[in-house]
Task: inverse folding
C-alpha cells in the first residue's frame, strides 16, 4: 500500500556539501561514457567499434543518449562511475560503468529509472520475494514524514548497514565527552575478521583514530573497523543507541552481534542453529562468550545465503529512516558525523551534486541480502531519505547481487526525483 503524506517543512542540515563533478572528466570512465552517448546516435554499433571500446560480448543502447548527471566513484574515480542518462524518448536510465586497466569498458549496467511511485513499487517487488522500501522527508523538527512505501515497517536483514547504529553510538559517546574522534585505538587481532580489508590488513598494535575506524566502517563496511568500534564502545552502547534512534524492534538485535561473531555463526551453521535455539538474549550472550569467542578468526566466507532470517542485524526502512534523522541531529553539533557518512554520499545514484549538495549513504550487501540507504539534501534545505531492502534466503537460486544493487540504485535515483517533483 502506498503511503501518502502532505509535504512539510524540511530539516535543516549542516553544510556537508559534495562538490559537483565536471561533465565529463577526461578519465577512462568519462571518455567511455562520452563514446556511449555518441554511439547511441548511430546505432547499431559495429562489432569492430564495440571491441575497440569494450570487452563486452554485446551492447544494447537506446537511441539519443545524453548525460543528465555524472558522478565518479570515490577512491576509484578513473575506473568506476555512475550516471543518469536521458534517451531520445525522454526516458531516464541509471548507468554503472567500470573500465579495465586498458581503459575499455569491462562492466556496464543500464537500468531504466522508474517514472512513477507505482513503477518503483513494481521494481522493488520484482527483485525478490521479500522486499521493502520507504521514501520519506525529514521535517524541521527532525521527524520523518513518509511519502511512499512498500512494507516500510517490515523487519529485514541489513548487513553492514548496522554500522549506522555503531556510528550513532560513537557520536553519542563523543557528545557526552567520554570519547574523542581523534582518540587513538590499537588494532587488535581479536577484533579482526577479514585480513584483506583496510583495517584487517594493518599490523596489530598500530594506533588508528576512532575517526579512521568510522570512515572505513561506513565507506566499505569494513568488518574489522566495525568490530574495533564495537569493542571500544561495548555492545550495550550500540543496543542503547537503537532505542535512542527509535528502532521499533530492538529485541531482534539482542545481543548486538559483532561482525566476527556473525561470520563465525554463518561459517559454522551448526553453531548458528545452537545460538538461535538459546533461550533469550542472556543465554545467547553466554553462548557467544563461551563457544564462539574460542573459535579462531574465520578464513572462509559463505558465498550462499546462510541464516539470513536469524543470525543477522535487523531493521525496517522506517527504522533506518529514523536512524538517519537521529544522525542529522548529531551532525548539527559534530561535523565528523556528516563527513563520515558523506564519503560515498549519493555518488552511486549519479545524482547531480549541484542540485543535491548533501548526500549520505550506507548499504549492506552479502549473499541473499541487499540494502541501499540514502539521505540527500536539496539546495533549498529540504532533506529526504530513501531506504530499499531486498532479501532472498534461497541458496539454490541466490540473488544476483550486482544486478540487484543496480536495480535498487536506479530505484533510489527515481525516488529522489519523485520526492521533489
Result:
Amino acid at each position: 500500500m502506498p503511503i501518502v503524506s502532505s509535504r512539510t517543512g524540511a530539516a535543516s542540515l549542516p553544510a556537508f556539501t559534495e562538490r559537483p563533478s565536471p561533465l565529463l572528466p577526461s578519465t577512462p570512465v568519462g571518455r567511455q561514457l562520452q563514446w556511449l552517448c555518441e554511439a547511441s546516435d548511430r546505432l547499431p554499433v559495429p562489432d569492430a567499434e564495440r571491441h575497440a571500446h569494450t570487452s563486452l560480448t554485446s551492447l544494447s543502447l537506446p537511441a539519443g543518449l545524453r548525460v543528465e548527471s555524472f558522478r565518479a566513484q570515490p577512491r576509484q574515480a578513473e575506473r568506476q562511475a555512475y550516471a543518469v542518462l536521458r534517451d531520445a524518448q525522454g526516458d531516464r536510465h541509471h548507468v554503472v560503468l567500470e573500465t579495465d586497466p586498458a581503459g575499455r569498458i569491462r562492466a556496464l549496467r543500464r537500468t531504466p529509472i522508474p517514472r512513477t511511485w507505482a513503477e518503483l513499487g513494481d521494481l522493488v517487488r520484482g527483485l525478490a520475494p521479500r522486499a521493502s522500501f520507504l521514501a520519506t522527508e525529514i521535517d524541521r523538527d527532525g521527524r520523518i514524514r513518509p511519502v511512499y512505501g512498500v512494507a516500510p515497517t517490515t523487519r529485514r536483514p541489513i548487513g553492514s548497514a548496522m554500522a549506522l547504529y555503531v556510528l550513532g553510538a560513537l557520536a553519542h559517546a563523543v557528545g557526552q565527552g567520554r570519547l574523542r574522534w581523534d582518540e587513538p585505538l590499537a588494532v587488535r587481532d581479536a577484533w579482526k575478521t577479514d585480513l584483506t580489508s583496510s583495517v584487517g590488513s594493518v599490523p596489530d598494535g598500530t594506533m588508528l583514530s576512532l575517526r579512521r575506524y568510522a570512515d572505513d566502517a561506513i565507506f566499505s563496511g569494513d568488518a574489522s573497523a566495525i568490530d574495533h568500534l564495537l569493542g571500544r564502545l561495548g555492545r550495550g552502547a550500540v543496543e542503547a543507541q537503537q532505542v535512542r534512534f527509535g528502532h521499533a524492534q530492538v529485541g531482534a538485535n539482542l545481543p548486538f552481534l559483532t561482525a566476527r561473531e556473525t561470520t563465525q555463526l554463518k561459517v559454522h551453521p551448526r553453531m548458528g542453529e545452537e545460538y538461535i535455539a538459546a533461550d533469550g538474549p542472556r543465554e545467547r550472550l553466554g553462548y557467544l562468550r563461551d563457544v564462539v569467542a574460542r573459535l579462531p578468526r574465520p578464513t572462509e566466507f559463505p558465498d550462499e545465503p546462510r541464516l539470513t532470517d536469524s543470525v543477522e542485524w535487523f531493521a525496517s526502512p522506517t527504522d533506518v529512516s529514523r536512524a538517519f534523522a537521529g544522525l542529522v541531529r548529531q551532525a548539527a553539533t559534530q561535523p565528523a558525523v556528516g563527513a563520515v557518512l558523506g564519503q560515498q554520499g549519493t555518488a552511486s545514484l549519479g545524482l547531480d551534486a549541484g542540485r543535491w549538495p548533501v548526500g549520505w549513504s550506507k548499504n549492506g550487501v552479502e549473499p541473499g541480502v541487499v540494502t541501499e540507504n540514502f539521505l540527500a539534501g536539496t539546495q533549498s534545505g529540504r532533506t529526504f531519505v530513501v531506504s530499499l531492502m531486498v532479501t532472498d534466503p534461497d541458496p539454490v537460486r541466490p540473488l544476483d547481487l550486482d544486478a540487484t544493487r543496480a536495480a535498487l540504485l536506479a530505484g533510489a535515483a527515481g525516488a529522489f526525483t519523485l520526492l521533489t517533483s
Q: What stands out?
A: The radius of gyration is 21 Å. The longest strand covers residues 130-138.
